[in-house]
Fold:
Amino acid sequence: MKKIAVASIALIGLTVSLLAQEPARRGWWPKLGGEFTPTASDEIAKGPVPRMPDGKPDLHGPWTGGGSNGDIESDGGLKPGELPLLPWARTLRDSRKDDNEPYLYCTPMSVPRYNPYPWNFIQSVTSRGPGTIYIQHENGDAGRIRHVFMDGRAHPDDLIPSWWGHSIGRWEKDTLVIDTVGYNDKFWMDSRGTPHTDRMHTIERWTRINYGTMTNDFTLDDPGAFSRPVQLKFTAKAAPPGSELMEFICTENNQYGLAAGVENIYKDKGYGLEVTPGEQK
Amino acid sequence: MNAKLTALISGLGVIAVCAPVLAHHSFAVEYDPKKPVEGSGVIQKVEWTNPHMRVYVDVTEPNGTVTTWNLELGAVNSVLRRGWKPADLKAGAKISFKGYGGRKILTRAAADALTLADGRSFTGASGAPDVPK
Structure:
């Protein structure tokens, strides 16, 4: 009994010390709060790249990952400080609190964000052959369906800036290249608050290297917020064969902020418009 | 004493295996790791909704008053992918819970473990309901 009591006290001490460390840790999660999307087993993942009838890679997953949620700099393979943000953009990023990211109020995440929920490529086939490629994100209203036009058209020159911009695609051997312009500046590129402007131009190069793995060589070019184009690299993992996306309507029951009394700083503003880049000194 | 020791050990386990899995939002913004909570009661209602599933539990206090706890889980899609089914959580069923209280409103808590009257315990870590041996 005495031994148990001593052990209990020791455990209490350990528990308290562990709990005391918690506030300094990022990414703390209760188990039932963490998200879960299974990925294909190693045995299945190392299998061959599936092919479409025309011989192009079949990019159907579904997939998780392939972008960043928390920090494009570190997730994209850069060292701290290497992301070439202009001074105003760096100042803005460092002043943003992740409590306030617009996505928490169910606005779209946009490119290159991918959260724990799955997404998918859908390669359409028409009577004239391969058609538009669609990118479907599970988190519905915060994701919508991207259209990647594969018919050789150019970007329109009169685009109204939008959350997902305008995407055109082409194949370079087995790599799907997606070129997108026309973004608005309302979304954060990660929960760290990395900003951008409506001058942003992105190029995604998606290469499926086996059944379970697909790389995204990502070029980010935004002279409004970055001093030069930057190259990032992300990897997506396939869900087990037979997996399907599910409905996810973010505005259905979003109680974000109520438990902690987080103030919605966008209540009287447009999302993400707390600072206008043109006004930066 | 043994029960207490077991509880402490399982409490340590909970802390040790917490993986930094990304979710709709950072839990640390809303919930306080320094405010572990637990209770037993009756399921008032279950919301199989996104972006977070919620289980409301009526807990009767020693003085007879009833407190309704609003327990937040992950996205309903994640919960279903772990193998849970709507039949696992029914209004009117007895349930006990552990979690972490809201930074401002304690009874808005993040669920960490749910245990049903039949002994089945949901912790979310195994990918399926954990059945005691």
About this structure: The beta strands of chain B are 31-47, 54-60, 66-72, 94-102, 108-116, 121-122. Chain B has a mean pLDDT of 77.
